[in-house]
Design brief:
The protein is an alpha+beta fold. It has a single domain, classed as Glutaredoxin (3-Layer(aba) Sandwich), CATH 3.40.30.10. Helices cover 57% and strands 11% of the residues. The protein is built from 9 helices and 4 strands, in the order βαβαααααααββα. The chain has a 4-stranded mixed β-sheet with strand order 2-1-3-4. A hairpin with a 2-residue loop joins strand 3 and strand 4. The radius of gyration is 16 Å and the shape is globular.
């Protein structure tokens, strides 16, 4: 089975846009998506990069561009009033969900919560609600994200992304080939089908 590694941080609106398209893309290509949450701040630091929103002209452009892409994809989008957000615990929760075969469901729900519903992923009640919504026990899930093994898995994904050359999000790998940004998805599909 062909696979793609999707490295993301919930704080990245372009990662949200890519995430809305990946399930259908993977189905067309006969591939599996591996959801790999990372701490984007750590990736930026390792790569000597920074978020586009910190540059005023890029930030202004980005808002229009995100709305344009959301219209193009036909998906809801609302710039988060919680941006930049501390998404660390939400990203750990992806690993908890993955252990129960629910990584995709949780990832999609969390992205929707932040970038379509303007919910705060730093709030425990939001995380509990999202966990419950995908069939996880919310109390057990929130306890698990505080355990060292789950923290270590998020760190390992972040370190792997840096080692592989990730410098921003989303970063999608097909084999060793990097495709950066939601606007490179047609190249991802070509690589999977080739």
């Amino acid at each position: 089975m062909k696979t793609l590694d999707f490295y993301f941080d919930f704080s990245s609106p372009y990662s949200y846009l890519a995430a809305t398209q990946l399930p259908a893309l993977a189905a067309r290509a006969g591939a599996t998506v591996h959801y790999r949450p990372v701490v984007l701040f750590a990736v930026f630091k390792a790569a000597g990069n920074d978020m586009p929103a910190k540059v005023p002209t890029k930030g202004a452009y980005m808002l229009k561009d995100l709305e344009r892409w959301a219209r193009h994809y036909g998906v809801p989008f609302r710039f988060s009033s919680h941006f930049p957000s501390n998404t660390l615990k939400a990203m750990r929760l992806v690993h908890v969900a993955a252990d129960q075969g629910k990584a995709e469901a949780f990832t999609q729900a969390a992205f929707r919560a932040m970038w379509a519903e303007d919910r705060d992923l730093a709030r425990p009640d939001t995380l509990a609600d999202l966990a419950r919504g995908v069939g996880l026990d919310p109390e057990a899930a929130l306890a698990a994200i505080e355990t060292q093994p789950i923290k270590d898995r998020l760190r390992a994904d972040t370190d792997a992304a840096v080692t592989r050359g990730m410098f921003g999000a989303p970063a999608i790998y097909v084999g060793d080939e990097l495709f950066w940004g939601n606007d490179r998805l047609h190249f991802v599909e070509e690589a999977l089908k080739g």
